[in-house]
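Changelog entry: the Subtilase family protein record was regenerated in this release. Current contents:
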Amino acid sequence: CVSADQFSPVDCNKKLIGAKYYIDGLNADLESSINSTTEYLSPRDRNGHGTQVSSTVAGSFVSNVTLPGLSSVSIMRGGAPKAHIAMYKACWDVEGGMCSVADVWKAFDEAIHDGVDVLSVSIGGSALKSLDVEIDIAIPALHAVNKGIPVVSPAGNGGSR
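Regenerated structure tokens:
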């Protein structure tokens, strides 16, 4: 885990075992530096998307859960509660959401090098529009699959398209 804006290595624990971020490519593409008024310059998630995805995938067992409008639930958990999470932040909440191909590819490369078991690529909205999925995501995903690492990605919330 790296130390950066609003994020410290002590934020990592038995569940979150790694956290890195990649911004040099986007800064070069924009020919300026992203400032910390619109985004945390760190692995930290400003809008909660990465946190929610991580909880859905690998949330630990929690007892005596109550949900508004529903009766009490005895136990709630993510899909793989014993899994560990390593976060690789490569997209940024600037101009509605942007990713640099260089940052995305570097994140894939480091995740592969770090020995992850599964890569979940969750890029949506305007950030996804800044990439050519057939090249910018498919090529590093193929590299991961060739190393024996499954790559999964949500279909999105765009309806029937």
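DSSP finds five helices and eight strands in the chain.
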